[in-house]
Fold:
Amino acid sequence: MKTTPKILTLLCLLLTTSAQAALVTNGDFQSCDFAGWDNYTDGVRHTSPNTDFAIVNNAGACQAKVSIDVASGASVFFANTLSTEIDFTAASNAQLWLSFDWVFSGFDDGSNLADVFFVNFTNSLGDITGADANPGFLFEPTSTYGAGTYSMMLDNRFINQSGWFLDFNLEGGFTPDSFSSTLLIDNVALRSAPTNVPGPPMSALLLLGAAALFTRHKQSIRTI
Structure:
């Protein structure tokens, strides 16, 4: 008889409180295109395919690629920006968490004058803002190549605000080796989790106790 596993499965569903995802359209780029995203070169929005932005398709596992590598055909003079509008809809007591994966690579020298990438929120007024809702950056400008995962809790002043955009920026430097870098972005996600997680309902606790008694009863029968 397979009743016990079914009961336990139901209990898992009742007892689990998971974070809810606020919308970042095509944040994992698994549509293998830039749906939900805008591409800007030197502040001008692209409306057609170009060499500054591309989708890297690894057998269906897709990533966004931003390039300022002029040797590979990039047309940028100053900076390329990959941007998407953010949905901050959440409960008033929620905690908002932003995360993404990044790979920054190229042939510049890593000095203070080299190619840099940085990430920020911006609004329709052009305000550049960090996770604390103050002027600044989510990911500080860096000229050091590397890779990693960003994860940060946002200030709750963002909750239910509109008109905000998430910008990934790749900016050319001033060395002989500048304008030779690329940036890969993937798994962009914004999640909301309640600050106060309620305890399990009494019905779930009663079911849990019943399931435990039923399991012990079956085990005692087997040992007779």
Remarks:
- Residues 42 and 78 are 6 Å apart (CA to CA).
- The two ends are 18 Å apart (CA to CA).
- Helices lie at 3-15, 202-222.
